[in-house]
Amino acid sequence: MKVLFLNGPNLNLLGQREPEIYGSMTLADIEEMVREHADRHSVEVAFQQSNHEGELVTQMQQSASDFDYVILNAAAYTHTSIALKDAIIGSGVRAIEIHLTNVHAREAYRRKSMIAQACIGSINGFGASTYILGLEAAILHNKANH
Ligand code: DQA
Fold first, then answer.
1. Cα–ligand 1 centroid distance for 146 (angstroms)
2. Is 41 a residue of the active site?
3. Is the pLDDT of residue 146 over 80?
4. pLDDT over threshold 90, residue 84
């Protein structure tokens, strides 16, 4: 099984960006943690990050042919991007929405997800562990649907 972790804007700043909200791990630290977990489950993972909406749309489109699942932290584009929602639906890839923080316990504008409807499900609020839970969700979903 092949899984793409696709990360949106400002997630390249993890570790230094509002650590009281997002924690002290960098995206590279999270990737290392996820890779260890993925290896134990014989899952192949790739990590990508972009600050550009169009780039994320293109990566989403391409992911359908290369990956079984995309685990998507679309960051702020979660709340605004119809283009990203359309890319998930249009590509037909199986997507899981994740967030480090509990977006429902923050500002009202973070409660709305434009992409949620296009995803299998969403996981949020467990910090860096959300990435592991996202991977687990993909593994379990794959088992249940094969
Ligand atoms: C985030 C939550 C978003 O609302 C925010 O814009 C982010 C990060 C999270 O992982 O908690 O950049 O997706």
1. 32
2. no
3. no
4. yes
Contact status, residue 119 vs residue 95, Cβ threshold 8 Å: yes
**Residue the block writes with tokens 């290369």:** 66
Clarify whether 109 is annotated catalytic: no
Total count of domains within the chain: 1
Round to whole Å and give the CA distance between 64 and 24.
Answer: 32
How distant is the alpha carbon of residue 142 from its chain centre? 17
- pLDDT score of 2: 98
Query: What is the domain range of residue 82?
Result: 2-144
DSSP structural state of residue 9: T
The number of beta carbons lying within 10 Å of the beta carbon of residue 109 is 10
Q: Two tokens at 44?
A: 């192949």
Ramachandran bin of 96, using left for φ above 0, alpha for ψ from -120 to 50, beta for the remaining angles: beta
Distance from the alpha carbon of residue 75 to the mean position of ligand 1, in angstroms:
4
For residue 6, which phi and psi values (nearest 5 degrees)? -110, 125
Which region holds residue 141: left if phi is over 0, alpha if psi is between -120 and 50, else beta?
alpha
Task: Please say whether the beta carbons of 7 and 75 come within 8 A.
Answer: yes
- Is the model's pTM score more than 0.90? yes
